[in-house]
Amino acid sequence: MDNDVTRLELRREYPDPIEDVWSALTESERTARWIGPWTGEAGVGNTIALSMTAEEGSEPSHAVIRECDPPKRLVMDLQNKEEPTWRVELTLTPRGDGTVLDFVHLMPKTDWDTSDILKGWHFYLDRLSASLVGEPVPEWDGYTPPTLEA
């Protein structure tokens, strides 16, 4: 393991089939429901622009697609202004009729409090869960991830 890299890992299980979870992670119409829509041409080596709708006033972030193996694996480098590039790895595995999502976020070590970043990813994955079952997605104000509740 690279000592200059921070690795954040989350695992979520969904009752939905792998193809449905994959489309919720990759189709702009579906990503718009939980994280935000994206524009550009999908494909390894291509750059897309992701508009994170829960990030009020934020400009679209660019993401370079590094790996894409439908419906099992997607790896992207998220390029944020004035921040280091973040690698996000999404690995889907079927389990019974459902799907397991292993989410990995790699970023250069900084003096940032990674608990805020981890809370943000919990927030977005909770929004994904809600969107998969057609429920309203959580809002940031008052949000507490289940693992961080007192």
Strand neighbour order, sheet with most strands = 1-7-6-5-4-3-2
Oligomer: single chain
Q: Approximately what portion of the residues adopt beta-strand conformation? A: 35-45%
How are helices and strands ordered from N to C?
EHHEEEEEEH
In this structure, how is the largest beta sheet organized?
A: 7 strands, antiparallel
Provide a brief overview of the structure:
By secondary structure, the chain is an alpha+beta fold.
Topology (elements, then pairings):
Elements: E1 5-14, H1 18-26, H2 28-31, E2 38-39, E3 47-50, E4 61-69, E5 73-79, E6 86-95, E7 98-108, H3 114-133
Protein architecture, described:
This protein has 150 residues and is α+β, with helices and mostly antiparallel strands. It has one domain: START domain (Alpha-D-Glucose-1,6-Bisphosphate, Chain A, domain 4), CATH 3.30.530.20. The chain contains three helices and seven strands. The protein has helices at residues 18-26, 28-31, 114-133, and strands at residues 5-14, 38-39, 47-50, 61-69, 73-79, 86-95, 98-108. Strands 1-7-6-5-4-3-2 form a seven-stranded antiparallel sheet. A hairpin with a 7-residue loop joins strand 2 (38-39) and strand 3. It starts with a strand and ends in a 17-residue tail after the last helix. The relative contact order is 0.21. The mean pLDDT is 90.
